[in-house]
# Entry
Amino acid sequence: MGSITLKQVRKAFGEVEVIPGVDLDINDGEFVVFVGPSGCGKSTLLRLIAGLEDVSSGTILIDGQDMTEAAPVKRKLAMVFQSYALYPHMSVRKNIAFPLKMAGMPADEQARRVGHAAGILNLTDYLDRKPGQLSGGQRQRVAIGRAIVREPVAFLFDEPLSNLDAALRVNMRVEISELHKKLATTMIYVTHDQVEAMTMADKIVVLRAGRVEQVGSPLDLYRRPANRFVAGFIGSPNMNFLEGEAAAKLNAHAIGVRPEHFQLSTTDGMLAGTVGVAEHLGSDTFLHVTLDGGTHVVARASGEFPVDHGDRIWLTPAEGRIYRFDQQGLAL
Amino acid sequence: MATKHQKTLARFMVAPSVLLLLGWMIVPLAITLWFSFQSYNLLSPGMERFIGLTNYKYFLSDPAFWQAMANTLMIVGGVLAITVIGGVVLALLLDQPIRGQGIVRILMIAPFFIMPTVSALVWKNMFMNPVNGLFAWLAKAVGAQPIDFLAQYPLMSIILIVAWQWLPFATLILLTALQSLDSEQMEAAEMDGAGAWAKFTHLVLPHLSRAITVVILIETIFLLSVFAEILVTTNGGPGYASTNLTYLVYSQALLQYDVGGASAGGIVAVILANIVAIFLMRMIGKTLE
# Structure
C-alpha cells in the first residue's frame, strides 16, 4: 500500500515561503510526476514527503497514518537522489544491502534480496565493483536497487535523469516506467522536463512558485490546461500565444495554439507571416514564423515542408484547437 | 599521453632539481656516516681515527638508547592518537553551524602558529608549574595535592604539549575533508535508516580515511624529531625518562662532545625513520589504492 495525502502542507525557510500550502492526494500504485520550472518548490515538496525537511505547518498522511513528524526511515519511503548519493567506498553489493543491514536483517535474507534486485536491474555482473567504476546509467540503477530492496511503500525520485546524456535518458525513462509496471508501487517523480512528465506519469502535478497549478493525467493537461502557465509548460515545442486583435475576435484576452495545430499553406490562410529559421528533421519540420503583427510563433508541419528563410507563409489554427485565456491567464 | 620526445625533454628539465636535492641529501648523510666510524671527540682535537663499528656498539648498548627508542615511539604514537581522535571530534564539532564560526575556527588554529619553544615554556611555567601553574591552582582549589607534571609524568607532559600544538593541524585537514562529504549521501543514509553512529562509522570515517592517512604521515615525519619541547621543559629528564632519540643524539654531540657517537646515533635514527616510512607507505598504498 502506498497512498500519500498532503493537507495544507506549508514550508517556509525563515522569511521566505517556499510552499504556501499544498493539498494533494496520491493513490496507491500511481506514478505521479511533479513538474515545474526550476525553483518552483517541487524538490522541496518531495523532501517534505521524504521527511528530509520539516513542514512548517500542515499534515502528511502515508497510508492514512499521520507521518508529519516521523523520521524518514519510519515513513518506509525510498528515495533516488539526483547525484545518486551512492556510498563511494562500498561495493555495489554493499551499497544495495546497506538499508537492509541498517534494519538488522539476517545475512542470507540480505543476500537474497540483493540478488533479486540485481537481477531486475541487470546489475548481477557488477555487484563487486565500486560505484566509481560504473557508468552513469549503471550508477543510476544501483541507486534504484538500493531503493527497491527495502520494499518501500513508495519511491521518490529527485530529478534522477538529469545527470545522464540524452540517449541514456530516453532508455532510463523507459526502464523506470517498466519498473513501475513490474512493481506496481507508488512512485513520485520530480523533474523539470515536461517530456519526462508526459511520457511517464499517470498523474502530473504542475507546480509554480510552490502552488499547484493543475493536477491531471498527461493528456488532460494537454487537452484542457487550466491556465496559460500550464498550457505553455506542457507540450513541446511550447504553445504559441497571440494577443490583441486575433484574440479579441474570439472574445478572449489571449489565445493559444499549439505548433502542431496549425495548418500551413504557402498561398492563403488566417495569419500571414514570414518564415525565419526552418528546422527540417525529416519526420517533422519546425518553422519559426514572424507574423505580420510582429508576434513570433512556432509551427509544426509533419513530414517535409519545402520552405526557406524569408518565404511567405499562411497559418490557420485547426478548428476546436484554439485555447482562450482571460486577463488573469485562466482558461475560458 | 605524452610522446616519447616529450618524456625525454621532461626528464632533462627536472634533472637539475633532482640532482640538487640528491646532493643536498647525500652529502650530509655521507659525512655523518663517515663521522660515525671515527673516534671524534671535541675535547680531544686532533686525535680522530677510524674505529670501525665501535661507536655503534657503544650507542646501541647504552641503556639510554633503548629507553630513548621507546620514548620516541611513545611520543609519536601518543601524539598521533590524541591528534587524530581529537581532530576528528573537533572537526565534527566545528562543522556544525554555530554563531561566530569564523572566530572559533581561527582560535582553533592559533596553537599551530606558536613556535614550539614558546608554547612549551607557556605550558611549563603557566600550566604545569607545581606552585604557580593553573593546574596546581585548580588542584589546590579542590583541596588536592598539586601534581608536579614535568617531574612525575615527564613523558606524558611532553606528549600533551606536542599534541596541543598538532591538534589544530589535524583538525584543519579533517575539517576540510569533512566539508567535502556529499550531503545527499548523508540524506540517503538517513533514509536508509542509519543512525548518527552508523552514519559516522559507515560514511564519515571511510570518507575521512584518506585525510587521516595524510595527517598521520605528515605528523610522523615531524614527531620523530621532537626536540625543542624537551629541551626547554625537562632536558630529557628526570634521568632519561623523557629523552627521545633526537635528544639523545644532541646530548651525545653537544653535552658530551662525542661527535662520532652522536653520528652513529644519527644514522640509527635515520634507519628508524626509514622503517617507519616503509610502514606508512604500505598504509598509504592501501588507502589510496
Observations:
- Chain B has a mean pLDDT of 87.
- The first helix of chain B runs from residue 4 to 36.
- Chain B has one domain: 35-288.
